[in-house]
Amino acid sequence: MLSDVDPEIAALIQSEQRRQSRKLRMIASENDVSRAVLEATGSVLTNKYSEGYPGKRYYEGQQVVDQVEQLAVDRAKALFGVDHANVQPYSGSPANLAVYLAFLRPGDTVMGMALPMGGHLTHGWSVSATGRWFRPVQYEVRKDTGRVDLDQVRELARAERPKVIFCGGTAIPRTIDFPAFAQIAQEVGAVLVADIAHIAGLVAGGAHPSPAGHAPVITTTTHKTLRGPRGAMILSDAQHAKALDRAVFPGLQGGPHNHTTAAIAVALHEAAQPEFREYAHAVVANAKALAEALLDRGFDLVSGGTDNHLVLIDLTSKLIGGKPAARALDRAGIELNYNAVPFDPRKPFDPSGIRLGTPGVTTRGLRPEQMPLIAAWIDRAIAAHDNDQALDRIAAEVEELLAAL
């Protein structure tokens, strides 16, 4: 038993379990996995080294592991309706790096959403290797709507002729127009990559349009809305499959994490069940209800609301920065993250906004009728951000709600 071998770590894990159970976990990229996913993650498959792919390994003893990985691959292909799936990337960033290795050479042009607008570091942002080794160009959102300006995307693509175009990101509260991006990519001869790390579970559950059939390459993490372990996948059409496989192995990494692969397979199996579709639509319903309740309380939401699991709040009008607001909310039992908002005048480490999502609270069983209560707690906590006693009272109310679920 872990408690016998290392009581310090065992105690810390127990503390984290208690912490998670007592808080509204509203970080948009977090969720609660099932007991089955946890069991697979902690299995003896972690003992096995498996460089290569099923049927083409560099180590013996792969009779079982090959079946595990092939099952994960087949389930990913069926769930997302694609020709090919690679389930070996360790996380989302290496999955995106594999795209660069597969289709670009250093100095080539890559196009993605600017990080302050809601994009991801690995879409060519300057502090990332992808922005240092390649020539990045970034598109933005409109100031008046907070939404992607597809006319600007088209003009930029025509002027810069990128070899790869990324759509998707980390703080996009609106539906991604995959057909429009596909048309632009086709016009300039670019490979369109849909990064659906945040919305993969919504796509799988039919609560967000799918990029399959529009983007020949799709990257995603396997946690977040998909509710699996911390891993990643690259999905693609047949034409791009070989280059992507070679980029993952041997291009970027060695042996895959077989215990994670098994847990991904479990999560994909769960996502194929009818109840997962209900969950995915409930995530969106909760986010929309929460957005409406926040608007009713005078909060400014980027793009005016949400179509998915994510709400991005600009706190400028509340006269508080995102960091102190996030810290106050954490003490109040509401866990989220501070986040830049489009055209943010503040620095990234002390931005104007906060980002929150509904995957975790939906998994816990909360419904749209409870979202106004959460909005009220958020409002109270921000107003009393420097009053520890007031924040502790909110935390007690949060814990009481969660204990009753």
From TrEMBL:
Annotated site residues (Plays an important role in substrate specificity) in this chain: 223
Record localization: Cytoplasm
The keyword Repressor belongs to this UniProt entry's keyword annotation: no
Reactions catalysed: (6R)-5,10-methylene-5,6,7,8-tetrahydrofolate + glycine + H2O = (6S)-5,6,7,8-tetrahydrofolate + L-serine
Top-level taxon in the UniProt lineage: Bacteria
Subunit structure, as described in the record: Homodimer.
UniProt xrefs under HAMAP family: SHMT
Protein name: Serine hydroxymethyltransferase
Source organism: Lentzea xinjiangensis
